[in-house]
Structures are given as structure tokens and as C-alpha cells.
Amino acid sequence: MNILLLDVDGVLVEDRGYRAGVIATVSHYSRLMGAGDADLDEAALDLFHAHGYTNEWDICPLAIGILIVEALIFASPEPLTPKVLLKLLDGEPKEDVEAAIAALREAMKGDDKADIEAKTQALTEASGKIAERA
């Protein structure tokens, strides 16, 4: 049996496009938080890979979570413990985020790309309020 494998976009041979996408995604959310481009490079991605995080679906949320925790640590006048973290987040618009998640889930049941993108943007803005406070 012969198999012909075509690497049309080049990600099977070299994963530079994937890595650039991860860096661009994390930097996008870093800029939304007012922190400028994320300090994420090839060496950092290698470190994620060495610890078992080998795809963008795992790396992006983890790296963005790290950025949020760093922002909260910087904003906190005392050591960041779960109790202090809850105090920092107290009063945040949780209902806005929950409503945005529900709207996005509903949009994803359909195939209207513009609606999905709009709902994704609404969720980004609603959750961004937490980062702005930090």
C-alpha cells in the first residue's frame, strides 16, 4: 500500500506557522489587557512542549491565564492567595461574562461565521473588564 501525504501548508514539516499563531493569539489578549505584546518566544514554546503542552488549544489559554495571574499579582498589595484573588475579583460583572458565554454557545450551533465572531468579540470584551481592573 502506497500513501501520498501532501504537506500543503507546511505544518507537518515545520511548525513555524503554528508557533506564530500561538504568539499572535497570546499577544492579542496581552494587548487587550493593556500589557502590550506578550513576551512569548520560541524558547517559551519549547518549554511548554517539554511539559506536555503541545497544541495551541492548550498553550493559548494557559499562557493567557499566566498573564492574568501576573496582572493580579502586580495589582495586589498583599501576597496573592485564593482568598485575596476572590477579593480582587469580587464585584466583577460575572453576569455579563455568563451571558456572553451562553450567546456564543448558541451562535456556535449555527453556521453564521459573522455571528460567531461577533459573539466571540462580545465575550472578549465582557471578560476583558476583569483584566482592566487588574
Quick structural summary:
With 134 residues, this protein is an all-alpha fold.
Task: Provide an overview of this structure.
With 134 residues, the protein is mostly helical. The chain folds into two domains: 8-77; 91-134, Helix Hairpins, CATH 1.10.287. The protein contains six helices and no strands. The protein has helices at residues 16-32, 42-50, 56-75, 82-89, 94-108, 113-133. It is globular and about 60 Å long. The protein starts with 15 loop residues before the first helix and ends with a helix. The mean pLDDT is 77.
Fraction of helical residues = 55-70%
Please tell me the overall pLDDT: 77
Sequence stretches where pLDDT stays below 50 over 5 or more residues: none
Order of helices and strands: HHHHHH
The number of helices is 6
Globally, the shape reads globular
Number of strands: 0
Structural classification = mainly alpha
What proportion strand?
Answer: under 5%
Number of domains: 2
- Report the major sheet: none
User: Could you tell me the radius of gyration in angstroms?
Assistant: 18 Å
- Spatial separation of the terminal alpha carbons: 58 Å
Which features characterize this protein?
globular, mainly alpha, 67% helix, 134 residues, 2 domains, Helix Hairpins
Fold topology:
Layout lengths: L15 H17 L9 H9 L5 H20 L6 H8 L4 H15 L4 H21 L1
